[in-house]
Amino acid sequence: MFHSAILSLILESAITPYLIILTSVFYIGRYMLVRQLDPKCRLRLPGPRGLPYVGSIPFLGSENKLHLTFTKLAKKYGPIYRLSLGSSEAVIISDPNLIKEAFRMDQFSARPDMLFVKEIVSGNGIILSEGDMWKEQRRFALQQMRHLGMYRLASEEDQLSQKIQSEIRYFTDTLEERSGQPIGLDYLLGGVMGNIICTIICGKRFAYDDPTFLGCLSTMEEGFRLVKLSMGINFMPFLRIIPMMNTVYLKIKDNNIATKAFFRSLIKERADTIEVGKTRDFVDAYLHQIQRLQDAEKFETSNFTDAQMMQCVIDLFSAGMETTRTSLEWAFLYMALHPEVQSQVQEELDRVVGIERVPSMDDLKELPFTEATICEVLRASSVVPLGNPHAASEDTMFHGHLVPKGATIFSNLWAVHNDETLWHNPSEFNPSRFLVDGKVERPPHFMPFSTGRRVCLGDHLAKAEIYLVFASVLQRFQVSIPAGESKPDCQGLFGMTLKPKAHRLSMTLRHKPKSVQPATFTEPARPA
Ligand code: HEM
Questions:
Q1: Is the beta carbon of 125 within 6 A of some atom in ligand 1?
Q2: What is the rounded CA–CA span in Å between residue 236 and residue 88?
Q3: Residue 182: which H helix or E strand, with range?
Q4: Which atom of ligand 1 sits closest to the CA of residue 453?
Q5: Which Pfam families does the protein's record reference (predicted)?
Q6: Which superfamily is assigned to 46-509 in CATH?
């Protein structure tokens, strides 16, 4: 009674508007004072303010252009700035030296605490794991890839080289059957690159039209595309229980179940035929490691589990297939759009390799223009435009600013590769920018495989595969835009990878190397 009397007195009083204004000024002033006095707020990086709860997510524009939006914001806020993404903080770095410095630091080598990391991958594998477990799994994978021949590809005697050459032979034979006809290369290249990495991981290749293999490739490709749509749900996890808003989340979950089923059967095939003392591929190496730990009664406390093995296999396959396939799609598209570059590559291949045999890793040192062209493809396409996001594992001071624990750190590799202060006319496709006195030189700001502690684990293999496929195809075929079809633009579709828009090319037979070996797949083993 007494309270309501006072309330109505206040509301009816003439001083009420002044009271409201005074109260508002008080609260806004207090908020600004707290921000000024709170060292964390004062040390924040520059960046747009964003809205409560959703931060800057509604202002990031078209989902196909996130790398361009991030680049535009860098022009306003500088080479390192912050953004609020839902309840989390993101830091975007677009300067190569700052990226190198940040990614050398242990504190910036974690992965973001995203819904998918927790619920789908469970922090397993290599790509999304962190801490000691990540170090152990990464070291093991690198060791095994080395044993399986990833670094010995230069020798023609090498078994891995022979397997890659055999797969390329299947591919070029398939292209020959369709010589001169318009063809979409994406699915065939998915088959070639998928088979190479699948052979390394589980000793198996598939026919390009095998329905199980095609299903796995398309599920994976869809996954790479869906990642860009998952930004909202990753940073605002409550969306996953809201019907209509959770379609992407449910789709990614279903795809993960299908992918695991595909690899489970491959792993079972290897486990059923494994022999003591012999390692045919990565899965064999992992199974031997589990057995060794079981024998030593250390299995219970170790990180080498069936779930870990499954995620490592999926990580190596997905990272190894999609990136190399997309790089090659760009490579052949650029050749069709720049016939003068294509002729120069072919002239070099004809002179150094000739037409009697296929190009080998040993030839590479004599093929500077071909190598420079591949570097230019990797720069111009920036296939992984924002790298893999890192995260800060603790509050860290970086160049006078506080990067709070848990902040997601994006490296804008696309911006680095298109920076006019670093590259002369970056929008021009020009392999010569990588040549100095006829020799290939990669400037320090060329970083398609990222840099630092989490630098791509497959960079050696990727460079070798891309070179072998690119050189073998250009030796044998002329690449062109089919008559009557329009030239696709080179903007790319943004996702985890930046893919060329759908297009077709004509691959017309130039000549066939005489000594191409028939495609064979033997299964050599090395001691465990
Ligand atoms: C053109 C081809 C490729 C490109 C452009 C590429 C690029 C990248 C980039 C930018 C990263 C992120 C590094 C970071 O977190 O800072 C990465 C990570 C990774 N890549 Fe690649 N990659 C390629 C091929 C491959 C291949 C062939 C494999 C497998 C054999 C592979 C396996 C991985 C793995 C496992 C990681 C995670 C490393 C970690 O988190 O420690 N990549 N790659």
A1: no
A2: 9
A3: strand 182-183
A4: 41
A5: p450 (PF00067)
A6: Cytochrome P450 (1.10.630.10)
